[in-house]
Amino acid sequence: PPGPDRFCVGAVLANGHTGEVSSTGYSIELPGYMEGDSGSTHAEQCCFIKIAQKHHLSAGRIEDLLPANIVLYTNMGPCNARLSGNRTCCDRIVALKEKLRTVYVGIPEPNTFIVDNYGKQRLEAEGITLRCSKQLVICVMKLQ
User: Fold this and answer.
1) Kind of pairing, strands 70-76 and 10-15?
2) Taking a C-beta distance cutoff of 8 angstroms, is the pair 14, 70 a contact?
3) Could you list the active site residues?
4) Domains along the chain with CATH numbers
5) Residue of 108, 129, 92, 94 lying closest to 16 (CA atoms)
6) Which residues cross the membrane (predicted)?
7) H helices of 3-144, where?
8) CA pair distance 64, 43, nearest whole angstrom
9) Distance (Å, whole) CA 112 – CA 33
């Protein structure tokens, strides 16, 4: 649900070769105390946690479960800073960069909460392609 201190974000993790959906997530879908996050869970984070839960692993150990060409779709660019001090979505994506090489976003994260979010530059510096498509906003939200 929308709130004065958060965006409504949805994310989908899919096999880049077959299009098969591996996981979906949305903002605050899972409790904020999960995986060392004392704040609200982000959409991308929920995707990763749900895969981990399915296989009884911690979210930090899912890389071996992912297909070689996993793609992340999200209606808003991944965060590169968090006011709570918790691990960022960019950090989580970079940790999976051997399998997660492409991120499609609907819009960049606005400067509402974090001014000058450099998520795009951070991911691209790590060799991860970030593509923007405003049509993606509608597609991700329909899957939720």
Assistant:
1) antiparallel
2) yes
3) 44
4) 10-142 (3.40.140.10)
5) 129
6) none
7) 43-54, 89-94, 119-125, 135-143
8) 21
9) 24
Tens of pLDDT, residues 24-58: 999 888 876 555 555 578 899 999 999 999 999 88
Residues of the chain with pLDDT under 70: 1-2, 32-39, 85, 134-144
Q: Please tell me what DSSP assigns to residue 7.
A: -
DSSP label at residue 59: G
**Residue located via tokens 């499609």:** 104
Amino acid type, 89: C
Instruction: Enumerate the H helices of the chain as residue ranges.
Output: 43-54, 89-94, 119-125, 135-143
23/14 Cα distance (integer angstroms): 7
Are 112 and 76 a contacting pair, CB within 8 Å? no
